[in-house]
Amino acid sequence: MDPVTHLSSGLMGGLAARKWFPEARYLLPFAVFASWMPDADIFFGGSDPEFDLLYHRGVSTSFFGALVLALVLAGIYKLVSRRTPYLKSAALFYVLALTHVWLDLITTYGTQLLAPFSNHRFALDGAFIIDPLFTLTALALIGAALIAKRRRHLIAVIGMLWYFAYPLANMAGGALLQELYAEELIRKGVAHDKVHVTPDALSPRYWKVVVTDGPDYLLDTIDLFGDDGPAAPLRVRRADKAYLDELGRQVSMFATYAWFSKWPYYSERTDGDGRTLVFHDLRFTSTNPVLARFYSGHPLPFTLTARLDPEGRITAWSFEGGVSSRADSGGRTQ
């Protein structure tokens, strides 16, 4: 989730908890920092794109990592507010850090909840990574809490509930749309194996639909303000993760991409000197008209390109990171 939403959850949490911390000094700035600190991993790895994929939203955004961070921050806070019990502030900071973890979990990018004990990436379909309705409503509630001093605690508690209620409502809505879309495909006689619906940019108006159809994916957008149903979705060729792992024996980035991607697909160009494979992930591709205009003429995020010689050896590769990625890089092999 975007930094503004993370920081707002910390401010909201600090306002909600203030009633139970009458002796605390500088509680709000520490609460805001607690809600952001799991993102500290962005300062490590430098320009290494593989490190970014492997460890961003890794141990620092896990149950274990958030606990360690909360305990350390509570120790620092004890130096600032000596009258505040250590365990009391540690509990608050852990709740706020876990709220950060939750806000990352509800996006399709997901997070490694069990790191460092497992690198499995968990993800729910609760919100697009930038959701104006979600964030602006939270900011409005913060504003109301700051203005209405007598009802500040109540408004802030309601605000904290908002960070959970909205994504859960989206999940329920997405499940319903998924069922309706599948029924419409059946009614129209469109062959498919599986349908997956997730919030897209400007949700809950726009929803991304990924249909698995044999060797292909179908990509479509549902517009709740006037959609005619699945007419002519974009068809792309699914990438074989086993083949990506095979390429990973030459360049490890390709095995990492196989692990990282959820719905990988590819395009291929061939010439006399070999061929070029371009891999994408449908998590970061959209037929949503807003995103289509945004990315028009620009490379899609999280794109991995390989140049192969006639024998299938990688001679060069490049990677296009995401908007929040610090790592866009490539290499050449011998």
TrEMBL record:
This is Inner membrane protein. The keyword Transport does not apply. PANTHER family: HYPOTHETICAL MEMBRANE SPANNING PROTEIN (PTHR40031), MEMBRANE-BOUND METAL-DEPENDENT HYDROLASE (PTHR40031:SF1). One of its GO terms (molecular function) is hydrolase activity. The lineage of its organism: Bacteria, Pseudomonadati, Thermodesulfobacteriota, Desulfovibrionia, Desulfovibrionales. Pfam families: YdjM. It comes from the Bacteria. Keywords: Hydrolase, Membrane, Transmembrane, Transmembrane helix. The chain crosses the membrane at residues 58-80, 92-115, 127-147, 154-177. The keyword Repeat does not apply.
